[in-house]
Amino acid sequence: MSKRRFGVFTCYCGGNISDVVNVEKVVNETSKWNNVVVSQSNRYLCSKPGVQMIRKAVKDLNLNRVVLACCTPKMHQKRFEKNLKEEGINPKLLKIVNIREQCSWVHSNNPDEATKKTLDLVRGAVKTLEYATPLESVKKDIIQSALIIGGGIAGITAALRIAEHGLQVHLVEKESTIGGHMIQYPKVFPTLDCSQCILTPRMVEISENPNIKLHTLSEIQSVKGSIGDFTIRLKKKPRGVDPDKCISCGLCNRICPVEKSNDFNEGLNNRKAVYLPFPQAVPSAYTIDFDYCTRCGKCAEVCPSEAITLNNEAREEEIRVGTIILATGFQFMDYNKFGEYLYGRNSNVITSLQMERMIDVTGPTQGHITRLSDGQDAKSVAYMLCAGSRDYNRGIKYCSRVCCLYAIKQAKILRSHDLDVWIHYIDIRTPGRRYEEFYKSAQLDGVNFVRGKIAEIIPNGHKLLVRAEDTFINKILENEVDLVVLCPPIITSTETSKLADLIKTPLDED
User: Domain span at residue 367?
Assistant: First the structure.
């Protein structure tokens, strides 16, 4: 084993370090250590003269290990590694000690202790490199294909971008069609453009792109391997209808005797056990929901293209990919713990996603804003922002970022229907280009913004009495409305948490 020959170089960082840390003392002390051949300082190690000083010392003194006491490795590590590699030093025999953030900045009121800590950190780096083994980079063949989990707008966009480069893409979606949540929205903020006009052309591109293989009604069972070579096992639920044969005539749907709650319309109406979620679905084929299908056979009898197979069973498929993209979307927080909101107990209390479906002209009410308790046209709506968000006791601690904006979007649409709209908020947050102007335009449209939380929602016949505080005028307001719209916290979907375990991806509290 060759003798360790260390070079220790300390940076003044233009005063960021030297105003607190005694750099001269660090240089003097480290120069006395075993195997330290040279210890030098420079006003800016990252400057061209600083880098040249290090390279010259490595070359002239035959150094084989280098310790840099400077700022965070995230700033210049790759540059230092590149220059030292050109001088024959393996990048793994370089150690950068962050004495700016970890010493001078956090101990600016105690220079002596900051200097002592600097010496301790540098000593640790030297000892680490004494036992370090140089590593060499290796090249491996990468499978030229990608797995994208989630068929919403994020997954669709990623799939199209990758396919543009001629790579094979496997797009996996657990539902019977791609489109995700975005296809449920009639318009998007802040331009109020038609979301389906933006999304459906991309969905069609997915179905027609030869480099993209679409796996609907599919879930990830297992993930093996490592970056560049993953083996994925998919579980494919039975569709019951052959997408290649189905001509979307709808005869099966019309004759089916079984109905269930319509998930696509957020439970605001029912659908048949054999169904097409929406007209632009991709694949453009009907699906049998075998959780509810009675297998009466009536749909198969009327199908003109013989596309229906009632004994269709689940199957597994194995694919190999080089990389994985998670685009699994979101879900709303469960409202069972918030009984005071009356959600699920009063039909006139709905979520913002249910309002999206109600606003949509292709939705369950054909775009009419309806009081669900009696089917009459609604005249007034109250929004409750942060309905469980920014709540450190029972809800979610964080802000979901989009709630203020989609509530303003919906409010503007409702105002165009001449409804009275009240938005109760803690703070209106409008980060993003043109968002503040969007908020201002809603005020000019006549949307009523009330700063303060809703304290109580009281049923009053087919109406709801909303009691809330207004912190601007320091009074309690009482307002009778037809609908209350809750804006729930957006949380990680259950599937995402399972996938994170499979792929060994860490999740934080958000």
Answer: 333-490
